[in-house]
């Protein structure tokens, strides 16, 4: 969703702001803008649409400045218009904002009564006017004004502010939305996401909830929620520039699909080297895991499907009961809470608001132990969790999650085995088998990637369709769900997934010659059942597209297309079967000419409700 970048330097910062905003594009946005301080004046350019259009406009107007802020906006309060785009300006004070101000209406009334005139429908403009109001009251100090203003706001915000009266500094604040300060040589930066400034510096300070900061060329001063100076650690980010660039690929989604063997190998590296140790989940994990009697998983979107898959593993391997729930549902119901049930949140970004709020709610309900499976170091959810396991997928840019999902699965499988070992449910022989399966996983995923040419041929058949049905059983049912989600997200084909046994209870009514039915049919204990379900489809004229393991004895016939995935990989088969459904969605979207990396209406990081 929205993104922030700010810079103060001895050089022209406009290219830094533009490049930063381009690197934030992946989060999803519908307008963009920058404001700079130039000759004691604020200049601003905003555009709906792409950052490149806004950048062209800035170039045409000859923007050049050593202090500036920029923003990509994903509309919440007010439509997608230039007037609603950030930065918002009030009497020479310009600011950008991520998050939602809940008391904006009340503040708007108050400011209107004071004579302020509003040009936009946003909650953000309220903050700009409040800044000006406090500057007038309190002696023109930008930082003091910001510290006053944030105390009058309820809701979530990351803010960056500049003023024509103070060309030597920018100030910022964080509550509920990520914000960091980047430290350069004689130049400093503000960003909502390290990828926005990684071209300039890797040294970053992650602001904490309630922090404000003052950033000049030479210094960074951070203040805690009590406005007193606060010490914050300087981190060196390991996000690489290469991970943010396309290289030889056409889309980030394609690149990220192909990165999966490496991403999985990195994620399982410690387990492969040292075995299934609780330490994979943090120093305290051993004692926590010994204390638990069940698992409660909370997540959204693709991460939720990772959780659904994990449930099969956790219950089968560790014998612990495992519940999985969509975070946005969990947070609003009187859920059963057992303090001895470990709350596991799964989130690629680590900042999905619903997942974060569900985590807070779970703690409120009395859950004593929390574990975050996350891909972004130092993001909000792991920071709020007792235990953390970082997947090592690297930056994921495509809105539709791919490598984050399979690395989450790899991490969750490790969790199942570690819990099983602690509970005496996994003996040495079984552990060795699981380790062997893990070792072979990157290779099996690579084999699945080699199916791409056959999948391209299928995608041509899918491209003209309006609907598609995905079927799977057992641990492969969540993979069918993920396949349907990928297809709808990026190709806009309506797709649904069902456990194959449920077909006859409703969805079979939809099946006719126009309905492609994708079947995930690994060579496991449920294969014969799946075959019967397929007969039910064929008998109604439905066209079957079957992903079958090499050793599962399937043959093509009229209306039955078969792609052979690698030999059955046992317990990790869901991970291998994810690859072809991802590629099917990707190539179908390509054939339909949609914007694969930035599908309409969707955002990568969903930081609003
Ligand atoms: C958005 C993304 C999805 C993602 C979901 C949860 O909807 O587009 O790809 O699965 O958020 O995000 P998280 O970062 O918490 O995994």
From TrEMBL:
Top-level enzyme category: transferase
EC number: 2.6.1.16
Coiled coil (UniProt feature): none
Keywords of this entry: Aminotransferase, Cytoplasm, Glutamine amidotransferase, Repeat, Transferase
GO biological process, one term: UDP-N-acetylglucosamine metabolic process
Domain SIS, first and last residues per copy: 285-425, 458-599
InterPro entries, sorted: GATase_2_dom (IPR017932), GFAT (IPR005855), GFAT_N (IPR047084), GlmS/AgaS_SIS (IPR035466), GlmS/FrlB_SIS (IPR035490), Ntn_hydrolases_N (IPR029055), SIS_dom (IPR001347), SIS_dom_sf (IPR046348)
Predominant subcellular localization, coarse grouping: cytoplasm
GO annotations of cellular component type: cytosol
Residues forming the catalytic site: 2, 604
Subcellular location field: Cytoplasm
Reactions the enzyme catalyzes: D-fructose 6-phosphate + L-glutamine = D-glucosamine 6-phosphate + L-glutamate
A GO term for molecular function: glutamine-fructose-6-phosphate transaminase (isomerizing) activity
Record carries keyword Signal: no
Domain Glutamine amidotransferase type-2: start-end pairs: 2-218
Key word Cytoplasm present: yes
Assembly and binders: Homodimer.
PANTHER family tied to this protein: GLUCOSAMINE--FRUCTOSE-6-PHOSPHATE AMINOTRANSFERASE, ISOMERIZING, GLUTAMINE--FRUCTOSE-6-PHOSPHATE TRANSAMINASE (ISOMERIZING)
HAMAP family given in the database record: GlmS
NCBIfam families given in the database record: glmS (TIGR01135), PRK00331.1 (NF001484)
Role description: Catalyzes the first step in hexosamine metabolism, converting fructose-6P into glucosamine-6P using glutamine as a nitrogen source.
Protein name: Glutamine--fructose-6-phosphate aminotransferase [isomerizing]
Organism: Pseudoxanthomonas helianthi
Gene: glmS
